[in-house]
Specification:
2 domains
């Protein structure tokens, strides 16, 4: 029998938790189901994470991996951000879990708020627009990318789900461009 390392056990629990939260949502996901998915005893989940809320916080701890806009030509900022967010939504289960759960759980909504407000504001503040307006501009960018994500990945609205990435970048990019580049 192969023994797991502490880091390996933690990673296995987090992977199982992300999948379970994505499938069942925060309210219906249980420590027992997550432990079963991870093929470990429920007490181990509690040992590593304390409780369900702390496990969710760890599973939803993510970095948006936003690009450094200083190296992006000014006219391409909106397109680059739009393409980046599409890539993140399509490749990071944790981000989709957090989005789905934020609608029904205050802790998840607060986590989503913190991630977007902190990380996006920092990137926008380093862009070409007035740094004093960075929180407002970041909030407006969030309205667009979160709205797109809800429609495309949660509600699965046919017109939006049938669009190619290039089409979404072409439609949404100019709006993000306005917000990030400082033009009104």
């Amino acid at each position: 029998m192969r023994t797991r390392t502490s880091a390996g056990t933690r990673a296995t629990i987090l992977a199982a938790a992300r999948q379970r939260f994505a499938a069942d949502g925060y309210e219906r996901a249980t420590i027992r189901a997550i432990a079963r998915d991870a093929a470990i005893d429920p007490s181990m989940v509690m040992r590593y994470f304390g409780n369900k809320q702390q496990l969710f916080a760890a599973a939803a701890d993510l970095d948006l991996q936003l690009p450094n806009l200083a190296s992006v030509p000014r006219r391409a900022l909106g397109r680059v951000l739009t393409a980046h967010f599409l890539e993140r939504w399509e490749t990071d289960d944790a981000l989709q879990v957090l989005l789905r759960t934020a609608f029904t759980n205050e802790a998840a909504a607060a986590r989503m708020h913190a991630i977007f407000a902190t990380q996006l504001t920092r990137v926008v503040a380093n862009g070409p627009a007035d740094p004093q307006e960075a929180p407002l501009r970041a909030g407006l960018i969030a309205t667009q990318v979160l709205g797109m994500a809800v429609c495309r990945y949660v509600l699965r609205l046919a017109p939006v789900t049938h669009m190619t990435r290039d089409e979404i970048v072409a439609w949404l990019g100019p709006t993000l461009q306005r917000y990030v580049a400082g033009t009104r």
